[in-house]
């Protein structure tokens, strides 16, 4: 049975837009009466997870990170100035990135509330149950702080629900807390192999994978060799490698046999590419052991829909099999041209609509038209009773209108990424890990050098929200965007040469919302370059 995350936690949370960091005033009933049972704590956790869902907004960190990547352009139409501003490192409005700022701090506040209140509960089924819930809350707090850190650089480190007006933490303070939270999550959560009951929730294994991602990012961006922890000691590379090795050996996660079966288009029996390659979608339920942590969506549209997929869909049309969308994120042809045809992930990840007969017609108001579209996060149509219909409407009964029908999960951590991070960290099994990922797509072994691992990450994880941050931590943002120059494209059917001008003074970080700076009375300072 498909599981759904409850999207509203408004049962006892009262929203406020007036307070610094948008912390949410809580009634005395919550503090003293709500956390009475494990079921109450589980409901609170669902509220923490629900913040991952973008609702009706497209300004989610996953969407933003993809448009920032050198492998994609803004796309959309001429009226989509905010989308163009993301891709071109411009500020469309003073509060352009208020949504991800608010959402992440909303999640942090809820995690803080749970951790402050959990000792009120005395009726635990077991100590294991209590520890798991504590571990999940620490994981989610770490995740939201890490999301803020990648988007905005250093941010206020809010660790309690009492209203505070804090300056930015130092990178050492911020990442020390993120690492500490993940280490607590790893310690507290059960050491049991993958279970379909964990889908959509944090696990020990997801925490170990995220620890590697945090370590690689921090040490790369800030030029450190370890992460200093808040109390004492440090997180070393050796400890991170040990966690990755342990995760790979004991988690029960594994790669799906065919890379292409990870993506919903493989379900479409009306798609020639899927039929010719005998593809069978692995689905989003218990059979997919590769996905480790993801955003889940419901079947009732509205705030439960996947708005990101809607934005990435082909502009204003339904094709066979890709469905109606708003045309964001056309693919940079430089990626296509640099990708070897022998790598099946090339055609598995990108649809060249000039060669794939899907009935595609370029929209007259499409910007940055390259005739290359990613396949991983797209609305998918199938034939039902001779008519094209969104596959999620058929499978799960989502609303039949184009706005609300998409329910594809967004995968935030995949097991293939853990293999590649293990290789990059220098595990003793680095060569084995790289070979496993390449063997899955019928590619020969290559030495586990940093350059080969970088290439493998680009092709394996294309369009999965990691490319921009990989370039940032490798110190390659400026050089990558210096290559994105004079690209032949079409705007509204007219040929243009398009370049993206990266602004190195920003160091890749986004502007802090101006309203938050004003609310802080100048305690919070704007990022460089903005």
What does this entry look like structurally?
Strand 11 and strand 12 form a beta hairpin. With 530 residues, the protein is mainly alpha-helical. Helix 6 runs parallel beside helix 8, helix 8 runs antiparallel to helix 9 and helix 15 runs antiparallel to helix 17. The relative contact order is 0.14. The radius of gyration is 22 Å and the shape is globular. 40% of the residues lie in helices and 8% in strands. A two-stranded antiparallel sheet has the order 1-2. The protein has a two-stranded antiparallel ribbon with strand order 3-10. The N terminus is likely disordered.
Q: Runs with pLDDT <50, length 5+? A: 1-29
How much helix, percentage-wise, in residues? Answer: 40-55%
What is the terminal separation in angstroms? 48 Å
Morphology:
globular
Strand order of the largest sheet: 1-2
Give the structural class.
mainly alpha
Which whole number gives the mean pLDDT? 93
Bin the strand percentage: 5-15%
Query: Nearest-angstrom radius of gyration?
Result: 22 Å
Total number of helices: 20
Number of strands: 12
Largest sheet: 2 strands, antiparallel
């Amino acid at each position: 049975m498909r599981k759904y995350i409850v999207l509203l936690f408004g049962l006892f949370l009262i929203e406020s837009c007036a307070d610094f960091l948008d912390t949410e005033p809580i009634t005395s009933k919550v503090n003293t009466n709500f956390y009475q049972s494990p079921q109450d704590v589980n409901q609170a956790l669902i509220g923490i997870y629900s913040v991952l869902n973008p609702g009706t907004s497209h300004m989610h960190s996953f969407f933003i990170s993809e448009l920032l990547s050198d492998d994609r352009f803004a796309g959309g139409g001429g009226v989509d100035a905010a989308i163009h501003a993301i891709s071109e490192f411009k500020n469309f409005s003073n509060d352009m990135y208020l949504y991800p700022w608010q959402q992440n701090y909303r999640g942090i506040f809820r995690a803080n509330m749970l951790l402050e209140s959990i000792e009120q509960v005395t009726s635990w089924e077991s100590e294991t149950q209590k520890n798991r819930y504590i571990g999940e809350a620490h994981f989610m707090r770490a995740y939201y702080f890490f999301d803020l850190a990648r988007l905005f650089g250093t941010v206020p480190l809010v660790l309690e629900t009492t209203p505070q007006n804090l300056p930015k933490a130092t990178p050492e303070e911020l990442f020390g807390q993120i690492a500490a939270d993940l280490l607590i999550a790893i310690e507290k959560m059960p050491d049991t192999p993958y279970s379909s009951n964990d889908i959509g929730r944090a696990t020990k294994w997801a925490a170990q994978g995220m620890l590697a991602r945090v370590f690689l990012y921090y040490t790369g961006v800030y030029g450190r060799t370890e992460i200093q922890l808040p109390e004492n000691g440090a997180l070393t590379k050796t400890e991170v490698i040990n966690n990755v090795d342990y995760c790979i050996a004991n988690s029960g996660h594994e790669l799906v046999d065919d890379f292409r079966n990870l993506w919903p288009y493989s379900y479409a029996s009306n798609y020639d590419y899927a039929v010719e390659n005998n593809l069978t979608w692995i689905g989003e339920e218990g059979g997919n052991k590769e996905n480790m942590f993801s955003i889940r969506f419901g079947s009732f549209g509205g705030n439960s829909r996947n708005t990101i997929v809607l934005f990435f869909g082909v502009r204003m049309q339904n094709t066979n099999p890709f469905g109606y969308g708003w045309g964001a994120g056309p693919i940079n042809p430089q990626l296509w041209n640099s990708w070897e045809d022998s790598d099946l992930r090339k055609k598995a990840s990108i649809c060249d609509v000039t060669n794939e007969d899907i009935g595609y017609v370029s929209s007259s108001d499409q910007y940055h038209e390259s005739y290359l579209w990613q396949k991983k996060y797209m609305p998918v149509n199938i034939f039902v009773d001779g008519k094209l219909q969104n596959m999620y409407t058929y499978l799960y009964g989502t609303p039949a209108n184009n706005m609300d029908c998409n329910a594809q999960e967004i995968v935030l951590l995949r097991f293939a990424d853990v293999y590649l991070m293990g290789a990059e960290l220098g595990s003793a099994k680095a060569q084995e890990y790289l070979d496993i990922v390449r063997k899955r797509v019928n590619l020969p072994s290559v030495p586990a050098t940093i350059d080969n691992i970088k290439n493998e990450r680009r092709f394996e994880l294309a369009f999965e929200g990691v490319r921009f941050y990989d370039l940032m931590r490798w110190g390659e943002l400026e050089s990558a965007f210096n290559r994105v120059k004079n690209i032949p494209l079409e705007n509204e059917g007219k040929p243009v040469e398009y370049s993206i001008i990266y602004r190195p003074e920003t160091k890749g970080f986004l502007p802090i919302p101006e309203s938050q700076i004003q609310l802080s009375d100048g305690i919070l300072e704007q990022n460089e370059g903005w």
